[in-house]
Every structure is written in C-alpha cells, then in structure tokens.
C-alpha cells in the first residue's frame, strides 16, 4: 500500500490533437482535487508549450471556472499543441535546442507537487521523459479519437468521433440512394482502423478498409458492384486515412480519392468522396466520452493522493484500472484482426477488401 502523499498543488494540461471530452476531463480533475482533497489546481495552457513560455502560460483553476457549459463543449479551453518537442525545440533562428530543462524549471516555479497529463501515446512518452528527468509525479489520462493507446479499451474522444462518422454515413446514404452512386467516406484514425470499422458497421457500409488489413482493389470493386446489383443501386464504403493508396503509396489523407480513382474504370456508377477530417474532433461530446472523462479524471487524482506516480488510468471491463505509462506506450493498440468487431463486420457480409 502506498503512503498518502504530501500533495497540495497539482498542474493539469492537455497536449496533442484535441478531441471531444477534454474539457470534461479537466473539470473532473479540478472537482476531485478541490472537493476531494482541498488541493490547488493550476491549468497549464497550450500543453507543453505553456511550460516553455516565459512568463509561464498557466492559470489557477477552481470549480467556479466550470459554469455548466464546458462539459458540453469539445476542444480544450486550456489549449493544446502537437508541435514544439521540448527535447528538440526549433528556435526562431532555425537551430534546434534541448529545452527540456525549461519544462522541469516551470513545474518547480509553479510550485506543482504533481502533474496530470491528458494526451495520446506520443504525448505520454514525452511527458514521461519530462517527469523522469524533472523528478515530478505524473499521472496520465489517455485521449485520442484514434483509440490506439495501448492497454486501455477506450480513450477519451473516440466515441464522439465514431458518432460523427456514423452520422456522416446517415447523411450520405440517402443522397447515394437518390443518385445510385457509390459514396466513399474517408475517416481519421492515423494508423488504426477503429473509427472506420465501428462507424462502417453502425452506418451500414458495404466495404470498410482499415490499415490493419491489406486490400485488393478488384475485390473492393466486385463487392461494390455486387451490392449495387442486388436490391439497391447505391453502395457505401468507409476507408481509414491510414490505408495505403491502391498503388501501395502510404500517406495520411487522400486515400479516399486515390481509391475512387482506381475504382472509376471498374464500376459503372458514379463515385463521390467525402473526407471527414477534423469534423470528427468536434461536436458535442457523447455521454460515453463524458463518462470516460469523469472516471479517468477523478481516478487520476485519487492515484496521486495514494502516492502513485508514473501511471496511466485505463478502462477495462467496466473498471478504471491503472497501468505503468511505459506499458501503454509499448503496446500500440490497432484493430484486432481476429477480434469480435472484425468478425462482426465479416459476419454481416461487409467486405474488408481482402476476400
Ligand atoms: O491523432 C489524432 C488525429 O486526429 C488523427 O486522427 C489525424 O490523422 C491527426 O490527428 C490530424 O492531425 P492534425 O490536427 O495535426 O492535422
């Protein structure tokens, strides 16, 4: 059993790409720290960049900063960044400097006894390095629409992104049906196909392409033709941005158009492409994302109170557990090609492009 810590003042920051549910997570941290333990909370602005700014970009946070609206808003009111790695910081003159010492100095200057970091796998690795170097207790909360952080079944922001992508399919289907077209929806997810797979199943797609499963463009064309020949004239397809183009080239963003081009000579019907992009990071956070934010935020503070450090909160089997941050970083979580969700897609007759 860990001893009760001497923590009185903690910092909280959001870093990396924003997503829905971050404000709810910050609120949960502040509520638990304040109501549960009487601690002061400092909100660090713009992620790690706030700790590199001079004066340091930070402000005191208390329960009164949350007026009831913030849990309903996506984005992060503290700001975020996915630029400016402090260990290799690009200076205005173009030179690169290790400014990690400035981060540790800022944590000390703010009088923080611990930090709660809310981020994806890249940020977890970065924050862990800072905490190891600066010697401050760190607990992390996983967030990313990609849902690819290891060890946790769910990261904050994923559910809202899936919801947005599914709604996009709900909007695309009637127009696809009206014109007898093939609609291709390109969704985010970086190297993971979680958003594509789940929204594709929920949204009635005929074909779903994910980075974890290689595809054959002729198999895709055959499935789309078959779907259109059966009982309807339209077809829906979801492609994850991390899939390689049919010519094998890999890049993020644009694969939807590349697939459409490759299909154009193989299908009789017209094809239209929608690239959903950053729309998936906004909108009203779903109840599930707000629940994750609340559960993770409160437990992260409890862990610090128990004297824990270097842990990430995680969701498994309807429980909040905690794991070493290093485990989460080391275990990237893509779609399980032998798992229940892939099996569900195949069971419905959805083509994943490989058969
Ligand atoms: O990692 C989250 C994510 O939204 C990815 O799904 C996407 O590829 C990327 O961030 C976009 O990053 P940016 O906001 O820098 O364009």
Give a written overview of the molecule.
This protein is an alpha/beta fold. It has 2 domains: 185 residues, 3-Layer(aba) Sandwich (Rossmann fold), CATH 3.40.50.450; 132 residues, Rossmann fold (3-Layer(aba) Sandwich), CATH 3.40.50. It has 11 helices and 13 strands. The protein has a 7-stranded mixed β-sheet with strand order 3-2-1-6-7-12-13, sandwiched between helices. The termini are far apart.
The kinds of small molecule bound in this structure are: 6-O-phosphono-beta-D-fructofuranose
Average the pLDDT over all residues and give the rounded result: 96
Counting DSSP E segments of at least 2 residues, the number of strands comes to 13
- What CATH first level of the largest domain would be assigned? Alpha Beta
Note the topology.
Layout: E1 9-14, H1 22-37, E2 40-44, H2 48-52, E3 58-61, E4 89-90, E5 96-97, H3 100-109, E6 114-119, H4 121-134, E7 138-142, H5 158-179, E8 182-187, H6 194-202, E9 207-209, H7 217-229, E10 235-240, H8 255-264, E11 271-275, H9 287-305, E12 311-316, E13 319-324, H10 325-330, H11 340-347
Parallel strand pairs: 1-2, 1-6, 6-7, 7-12, 8-10, 8-11, 9-10
Antiparallel strand pairs: 2-3, 4-5, 12-13
6-O-phosphono-beta-D-fructofuranose is lined by residues 17, 82, 120, 144-146, 188-190, 241, 252, 281.
């Amino acid at each position: 059993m860990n001893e009760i810590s001497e923590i009185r003042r903690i910092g909280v920051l959001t870093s990396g790409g924003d997503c829905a549910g971050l404000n709810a997570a910050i609120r949960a941290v502040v509520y638990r720290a304040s109501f549960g333990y009487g601690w002061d909370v400092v909100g660090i602005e713009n992620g790690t960049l706030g700790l590199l700014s001079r004066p340091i970009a930070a402000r005191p946070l208390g329960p009164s900063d949350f007026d009831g609206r913030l849990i309903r808003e996506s984005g992060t009111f503290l700001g975020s960044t996915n630029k400016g790695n402090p260990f290799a910081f690009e200076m205005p003159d173009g030179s690169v400097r290790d400014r990690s010492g400035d981060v540790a100095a800022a944590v000390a200057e703010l009088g923080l006894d611990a930090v709660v970091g809310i981020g994806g796998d890249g940020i977890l690795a970065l924050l862990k390095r800072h905490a190891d170097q600066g010697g401050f207790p760190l607990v992390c909360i996983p967030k990313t629409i990609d849902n690819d952080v290891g060890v946790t079944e769910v990261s904050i922001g994923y559910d809202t992104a899936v919801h947005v992508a599914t709604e996009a399919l709900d909007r695309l289907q009637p127009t696809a049906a009206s014109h007898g077209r093939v609609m291709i929806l390109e969704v985010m997810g970086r190297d993971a196909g979680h958003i594509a797979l789940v929204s594709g199943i929920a949204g009635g797609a005929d074909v779903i392409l994910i980075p974890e499963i290689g595809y054959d463009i002729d198999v895709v064309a055959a499935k789309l033709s078959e779907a259109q020949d059966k009982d309807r004239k339209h077809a829906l397809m979801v492609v994850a941005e991390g899939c390689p183009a049919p010519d094998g080239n890999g890049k993020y963003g644009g694969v939807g158009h590349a697939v459409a081009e490759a299909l154009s000579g193989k299908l009789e019907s017209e094809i239209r492409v929608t690239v959903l992009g950053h729309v998936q990071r906004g909108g009203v956070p779903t109840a599930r994302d707000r629940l994750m934010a609340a559960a993770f935020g409160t437990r992260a503070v409890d862990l610090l109170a128990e004297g824990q450090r270097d842990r990430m909160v995680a969701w498994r089997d309807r429980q909040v557990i905690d794991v070493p941050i290093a485990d989460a970083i080391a275990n990237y979580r893509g779609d399980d090609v032998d798992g229940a969700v892939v099996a569900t897609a195949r069971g419905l007759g959805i083509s994943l492009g490989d058969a």
